[in-house]
Amino acid sequence: MSTTSGPTAAELAARLAELSPAVLAEPGRVRGELRELLAQTRQQGAAEAEVQALLELSRCDFYQGRYEDMHALAEQALKCSRRRGFTVLETRALNSLGLSALRQRHLPQAMEHFMAALRLAAHADEVSAAITLGNVALVYVQLDRHDTALNLQSHVRAVMQGADQPVYLAFALSNLLGSHRRLGHHAAVLDLAAQAIVLCRAHGIARFECTTHVALGRTLLDLGRLEAARRTATAGLRVARWAQDRESMAALRLLEGEALLAQRLTAEATTSLNEALRLSTAVGLALQLEVHEAMAHLHEARGELGRAQHHHDAVRTLRAGLPTPATVPPHLALPAGPFGPYTWAPELAALVGSLNPPAPLPDPAVSRDGLTGHLDRGALQGALRRQLDLLGPEDLLGVLFLGVDGMRAVNERFGQDVGDRLLGEVGRRLQAMLRAGDVIGRLGSDEFMVILPYLAQTDDLGLVTERVLDAIRVPFFTAGQEISVSVSVGGAVAPQDGTGVDELLSHADLALHQAKRAGRGGAHLYEAALSADEQRRRVLRYDLRTALRYDELRLHYQPVHALPGLDLTGYEALLRWQHPRLGLLRPTQFVPLAEESRLILDLGDWALCEAARQAARWRFPERNLSMAVNISQLQFAQPDFVSGVKAALRGAGLDGRHLLLELTESALHPDAARTDAHLAALADLGVRVAVDDFGTGFSSLRLLQTHRFDVLKIDRGFLQDLQAEGETRERAVTLLEMTVELARRLGLRVIAEGVEFPEQIELLSALGCDGVQGYLLGTPITPEAFEPR
């Protein structure tokens, strides 16, 4: 027995169990700790924990595309688990070996490992058996037997739903999506993708959220919905980067490039496909082959036939190195059954036959809605009454009322039968995203109700509401028609909003009516003294989450002029939100909400990329103009901020000398070293940096002493004081004069904002100010409204 001090075997096993979900979400981050735990298990002689550590490390390699390393670790795990008789771990090790072989296109070896795992699990562990069947389905995908794969994956989904296994349910949904897509079942893909994304986000399952985005984006591309496909790729890339999932990053970059190419945006497509090619070299030949095919099409579209031929040659070379399905030896004496003519087919059929899970039977004592099969109003009230009776002093229970918006228009356009079928599909989509133990039913007409027992905190009801809104916004395919609807949601929480059935239902209903009054697709959680202003903020916060997805953000551009001649020197990009109900919103109306929720990161990235693209479209390098873009505190605080700027410039094909980033004093990171590192890296790109709203902070002079900037932008408040009389105006003139002189001595250019009167221009010119912008010279307008001068 080992006498080495340190964690016990039980403590090591517990820590490995804690890290297991993080392997799926952030494999790169947890790898180091897993290696330390592996060393500790060996020091302690904790054999079972050692095998667990080896398997978790092999999962890290799988999610990061290191299949040879994965194979070596799984081999070690298999030997140890067999020696010690750890049957469940042996099954996992065999599955890991099979996946490693599968990813390297060694299909016979993969099936050999999977069949061995299935024999172990078939009569002992239903979940392990279902996981193995899911892996077997992947082999049939490689064999182009997608119908067989679909049947196996449906079995896996049924088991995981019954076992309340969200990670493996996400695995099953992800694989189902791939098979449905390859079989051309577009409606099924769109519906399943909504369920899978909601599930993955609820449980932080980044890996399968990425693969879902790939399948969804590919389907949108097949349907010709190019912009939606590109946006789906962008959304997936954010998740893949966070999870350090190189394979998904490569697949999503490829999807993005193909969508851009189909839109004839060849410059942007080149950037995406080059990045896809770089990433794919580390994750396998099959993906490299797809990227080279796309690159060949790109160069053909650009008339670069020599480069296209280079990629065609690469495709041929890669194909020669890939094993094909034909290398899988069939058992020629057998007819082709449901599992094909392969040597493993008879045993597989027998094992699958023994695993069929019993279908859940409806409870005849519960009254159900004839249209959807869910509980009806009376049964819902009874279920709520029972849950309230069980409510403990620390327990919370949520109730949601959901009204499907626009059903009258659906019935008038498509007919009552289609409308009824749509309501059934809405109910099924809602059911799919709920937890085990949650209750759903139909109140009647176009209204549903959901009971959510055992909430951890009141805010959880708001999170569920957001997921509901997201899930229903994805279009439905009903009776051959694509139909988009939204839901309005009202919610209440017991015991704070009521402890009786009637009271709680009344408050949830009131919240639903308040949500409908605010407009379609909104939500309202009951609050007795909720102010109108707070309600508006809450609705805006919900709506802001989908503003990018639905292309509601806009950039307006205000010209900047040089003094004294008023020559045009560039534009400032100003963010706006074209809200579907409230009209055009200015940044002060939504940016604070975006910063509170960290959505400002996505909004800011979009604004930076779009402004750079606009500068390239308007040929700024030829005109010697610059584009100014505002940067938020959260954006600048990101360690990879400069990489994002570089990517935006590269994507637009814009030289950094034509970009000016505007930072307020509060946006600068409190870590002076990080700020200086960012500023130096931006300078290396040729990007200039301005201190925006200079004079409104508490330490602006200190900033100029400790950091190097290029431009000062004087706050409009100083110019407003120029219109005053007496001492106020004199003090404003003095401060402006001192500011301009200070900037000149520090080698900075000075731009004054908010110019509205001719006499302001005269004074600023006399003081030596370098540039001006304001409504007198040009209001912020859309790019469609004018051609740059």
Overall description:
The chain is α/β, with parallel strands linked by helices and 789 residues long. It has 33 helices and 16 strands. It starts with 8 loop residues before the first helix and ends in a 17-residue tail after the last strand.
Most strands sheet: 8 strands, mixed, barrel
Helix content: 55-70%
Strand element count: 16
Segments where pLDDT lies below 50 for 5+ residues? Answer: 330-335, 358-365
Strand order of the largest sheet: 8-9-11-12-13-14-15-16
Rg from C-alpha positions?
30 Å
* Class per helix and strand makeup: alpha/beta
Span from first to last CA?
82 Å
Mean pLDDT over the residues:
83
Based on Cα principal axes, name the global outline.
globular
Q: DSSP helix count?
A: 33
What proportion strand?
A: 5-15%
Features:
789 residues; alpha/beta; eight-stranded mixed β-barrel; five-stranded mixed sheet
What is the fold's blueprint, element by element?
Blueprint: H1 9-25, H2 27-44, H3 47-63, H4 67-84, H5 87-103, H6 107-121, H7 126-142, H8 146-163, H9 166-182, H10 186-203, H11 206-222, H12 226-243, H13 246-262, H14 266-280, H15 285-301, H16 305-321, H17 345-353, H18 377-389, E1 397-404, H19 407-414, H20 416-433, E2 439-444, E3 447-452, H21 459-473, E4 476-478, E5 481-483, E6 487-494, H22 501-517, E7 523-525, H23 532-544, E8 553-562, E9 568-579, E10 583-585, H24 587-597, H25 600-617, H26 620-623, E11 626-631, H27 633-637, H28 641-652, E12 659-663, H29 672-685, E13 688-694, H30 700-706, E14 711-714, H31 716-721, H32 727-746, E15 749-752, H33 758-767, E16 771-772
Parallel strand pairs: 6-7, 9-11, 11-12, 12-13, 13-14, 14-15, 15-16
Antiparallel strand pairs: 1-3, 1-6, 2-3, 4-5, 8-9, 8-16, 9-10
Helix pairs in contact: 1-2, 1-3, 2-3, 3-4, 3-5, 4-5, 5-6, 5-7, 6-7, 7-8, 7-9, 8-9, 9-10, 9-11, 10-11, 10-20, 10-21, 11-12, 11-13, 12-13, 13-14, 13-15, 14-15, 15-16, 19-20, 20-21, 23-24, 25-28, 28-29
